[in-house]
């Protein structure tokens, strides 16, 4: 799977069914060349008002990803 195909997917919390955000980057282990985590930018209406502050992002380890579907990525996290 290419990173470009991950970027266009929404990230949804499987426990609550709420949209968390979307994938902006991935963490890769250089030794084994595998994905360690995805970096997600939160969806927020307040984000438009925060021009001087960086986007609120957080890291989801690969162990917390349940499935990668056609349109969404289901994760199991508490946020």
Describe this protein's structure.
- The protein has 79 residues and is mainly β.
- It has one domain: PRC-barrel domain (SH3 type barrels), CATH 2.30.30.
- It has one helix and six strands.
- Strands 4-3-2-1-6-5 form a six-stranded mixed beta sheet.
- Strand 2 and strand 3 form a beta hairpin.
- The longest helix is centred in the N-terminal third of the chain and has 5 residues, at 3-7.
- The chain starts with a helix and ends with a strand.
- The mean pLDDT is 83.
Mean pLDDT: 83
The major beta sheet can be summarized as:
6 strands, mixed
How many domains make up the 3D coordinates?
1
Rg, please? 13 Å
**Total helical segments:** 1
Q: Helix/strand/pairing class, anyone?
A: mainly beta
Please give the number of β-strands: 6
Question: Going across the major beta sheet, what is the strand order?
Answer: 4-3-2-1-6-5
**Terminal-residue CA separation:** 27 Å
Shape: globular
Task: Give helix and strand order, one letter per element, not per position.
Answer: HEEEEEE
Low-confidence parts: none
The CATH class turns out to be Mainly Beta
Q: What is the CATH superfamily?
A: PRC-barrel domain
Quickly give the CATH architecture: Roll
The third-level CATH topology is SH3 type barrels
Proportion of β residues? over 45%
Please give the share of residues in helix.
under 10%
Protein name: PRC-barrel domain-containing protein
Pfam families: PRC (PF05239)
Organism: Coprobacillus cateniformis
InterPro entries: PRC-brl_dom, PRC_barrel-like_sf, Spore_YlmC/YmxH
